[in-house]
Structure formats: structure tokens, C-alpha cells
Design a protein that fits this description.
Blueprint lengths: L20 H32 L19 H17 L7 H18 L13 H6 L1 H29 L4 H24 L5 H23 L6
Length: 224
């Protein structure tokens, strides 16, 4: 089963056909935008939300908890934008690495649409939580969040194998993502350490954003 998750060592070079330059520039621009969306999202939620809505606690216990904050639309919008791009940008290739990206994109869209549990009694439940139960919605959220973070590590692992000029950077990012996943699981199981899930989500998203942007800036070939 893991062979369908672990990517192949395979890279296809960009076309150099006449007239392809505008499409390549558009592709590279979209990749940069997605990388910067991922990089900006954690500090925007943690620092920006209390500046706009100063009656909120600072910080919340996880990035996912900002689904119940005044920045709900920012949280959902950013995740969906990133997810849609991950799903479609290598879709026609039908390689293992493209499937990893597609699965990661689909998983993060589910994370955006299925909120975590309420961060306090004063927060109202969502219609989806009222429909199928808060516990079920939260279970779906955390399950797909774990899948998403794990698949991000697989993408960085693929880049580490195939981009020798940045191999160490991608390898470090992969290990940070896996360590972040372990930290999130630890707090989820033991309620320790405080803000462990927040730190884990912050670290995983930033590590992937750094790995992603490094491939866009330094490698002329499309990745994953």
C-alpha cells in the first residue's frame, strides 16, 4: 500500500516549444503564490486575528481553532486555494508523485470544510456539527489533517531525492514535518505540551512552504 503513497523518482522537464513561455510564467507564478499563501497563513491567523478582533484569547490552541474565529473565512479560503492547486497542478501526469499531491490537496480541503471542536462554550456549533455531531466532524478533521501533514513530508522527500542542489534543505523540511506530526499526536493523546498542536501545525506548514518555494526559485523543472 505504501508504494502508492511514496513517490517515484521521476521528473519531467518543462517544454521549450515556441510559444510556451507565457504558460510557463503563469505556472511558476501560481506556484509561488501557493507557496506564499502557505507561508503567510500561520502568522496571519495567530497575529492578525487578535488585532482585528481584540476580544479573542491569544493565541488559540491550534491553527484549526481559527475556523471558529473572526478569521474563519481567511482560514478556509487559504486552505481551499492551496488544496485546489495541489489537486490539479500535476493531475494530467498520473504519476505517483502527482497522486501524492492530489491526495494532499483533497485532504486539506476536507480539513477546511470539517472544523475542529469548539475552543470554548461561548462558541456556537456550525450547521455541519449540528447535523452529524461535533465529535464526528472533529474526528474527520483530525484524521485528514494527519494525512495531509504526512503527505507534505512525502512531497519534500521526493524533492530531496531529485534536487541535489537543495537536497539537505528538503530533507530537513521533511524531518520537521514528521516531527510536527508526532508532536500533534502527542498533545492530542496526552494534552501535553500546551500549544503543542499549534506549534506543530505552524512548523509543518512553514517547513513545507520553505521546501516548496525553494523548488520554485532554484529549480527550472516542475516538482511533484
Amino acid at each position: 500500500m505504501l508504494r502508492h503513497v511514496l513517490p517515484e523518482v521521476e521528473v519531467q522537464r518543462r517544454s521549450r516549444a515556441t510559444g510556451s513561455e507565457p504558460y510557463i510564467r503563469s505556472y511558476v507564478f501560481m506556484r509561488r503564490v501557493v507557496g506564499w499563501l502557505a507561508f503567510v497563513l500561520p502568522p496571519l491567523l495567530v497575529l492578525g486575528e487578535p488585532l482585528v478582533f481584540d476580544d479573542r484569547p491569544f493565541p488559540l490552541g491550534s491553527l484549526s481553532a481559527y475556523h471558529h474565529s473572526g478569521f474563519r473565512e481567511v482560514f478556509v479560503g487559504f486552505l481551499c486555494a492551496i488544496g485546489v492547486f495541489l489537486v490539479i497542478y500535476k493531475w494530467p501526469e498520473r504519476t505517483r508523485e502527482s497522486r501524492v499531491s492530489t491526495y494532499a490537496g483533497a485532504a486539506v480541503i476536507v480539513v477546511a470544510l470539517f472544523p475542529t471542536g469548539k475552543p470554548g462554550a461561548r462558541v456556537a456549533t456550525t450547521p455541519l456539527q449540528d447535523l452529524i455531531g461535533q465529535e464526528w466532524v472533529e474526528a474527520v478533521h483530525f484524521g485528514f489533517a494527519g494525512v495531509f501533514i504526512f503527505l507534505l513530508s512525502r512531497i519534500s522527500r521526493y524533492w530531496a531525492r531529485n534536487r541535489p542542489q537543495r537536497r539537505r534543505l528538503h530533507r530537513v523540511c521533511e524531518l520537521v514535518i514528521l516531527a510536527a506530526l508526532a508532536l500533534a499526536i502527542l498533545e492530542g493523546a496526552t494534552d501535553w505540551p500546551d500549544y503543542g498542536i499549534l506549534v506543530a501545525e505552524f512548523a509543518a506548514v512553514w517547513a513545507f512552504a520553505i521546501s516548496w518555494l525553494a523548488t520554485v526559485e532554484r529549480d527550472p523543472r516542475p516538482a511533484v
